[in-house]
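Take a look at the protein record below with the fold in mind.
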Amino acid sequence: MQNHRKPTSRVRIGALPKHFPRVHAFTASAAACVLVLAIFIPTPDVEARRMPLPVNLTSAEEVVEQPEKVVPLTPRKAIPLAAAATEAIQSLSLTVRNGDTLSDLFKRAKISAGEMYQLLGSGSEAKKLARLNPGEELTFTVDTDGKLQRLALQKDRLSQVRFTRDAQSQFQHDLVQREPDSHPAYRQALIDSSLFVAGSDAGLSDSLIMEMADVFSSDIDFALDIRKGDNFSVMFEEKFLDGEKIGNGPILAVSFTNQGQTYNAVRYVDGNGDANYYTPDGKSMRKAFIRTPLDIVRISSHFNPRRLHPVFKSRRPHNGTDYAAPRGTPVYSTGDGRVIASGYSKANGNYVFIRHGERYVTRYLHLTKRKVKKGQRVKQRQIIGTVGSTGYATGPHLHYEFLLDGRHRNPATIVRKLPKAKSVPSSEMTRFKNQTQPLLAKLENYQGPALAKLDDDN
């Protein structure tokens, strides 16, 4: 028996076999068409996800013209020059050091000298920038081209001067002044050794101690009259900025008991804005002359017509008072007047003589420096020189003389006999009382319990 096998047919890719049944061929063709359609024609869901139709479009032509993401464009508003520049502005702050000039600071800020000269030429206020003080702060604000847009000078924590470039490229200046908060403060002390020690222990600054001594300088000689057991009570202003204390204001009211006698003073600002100290009944605390030409110092030699001279060892009149003080200590004119002599001699060293009206002359000897010239008018407590040891002097001190009608008088006692300055005029007494009585009442309220405590502690 023979084994018959059907011949094997080779099928080429892309061609149907010759003997493929017609029904099968039709079925295969239809399946191929469906597969092609499934691959290349996306379903409606896929199409919708790929390109969503805007709500207001209705035709196929409009859909084709739309981008995939529609971002509406709105016209951009014009930006002013100053605002546009602000977008690219940079600021740099520099502190003025010893020896710095404005040119040095511009170089450190990398700003051209031309910008500096344009600023300095903008007015008299800008020219003051040529005189900078160490510790002041300059803030430069420049644009991307290195052009100066603003310069701010911070003089202290309260004051700032700003120079700002305007639309015409000119610099305009304005002053920004901050006002600190002021609150009254109270201190009191019992003197055991000196006013300075007692004041410092009570928490007073040196400047407040000196201010208090100045208030009573016509009544109390703080180099001679102070005794153990003297006491004081003082009310003054404390100044705060952003909750931090930045300093003290003036004394508002003060009471000082010296050798059993009490002196009271209160600050009054008159209708012209001038501030001075008065007794509670309106009498001026200031006499024509203050008691001493220096702040609190030590008397090394009193007025003595029969004194033994320390250099020549012979009895010669000492027609003044010697105040021992460190070299360079400021010396004040004890009253208003005119300088009638300012020079140097072998005996007196550097000296200054001042005439006060027709009857009075004061003399200041052995100065290390003279600060005034002959013919110059001076005010009470104006600095006229500094303590030295020029001429016949064994050490740094001031020799002070007081002459009345050409005769030497004791400087420590003569001032008490001289008239005071003008008191509050009667036309201002109502205003004076309204302003000062509340201050005196506050001082009295503080004073009672505080002084009682001082007595208990001692």
Observations:
- The chain has three domains: 82-177, 180-286+422-458, 298-417.
- The radius of gyration is 46 Å.
- Residues 82-177 form a domain with the Nuclear Transport Factor 2; Chain: A, fold (CATH 3.10.450.350).
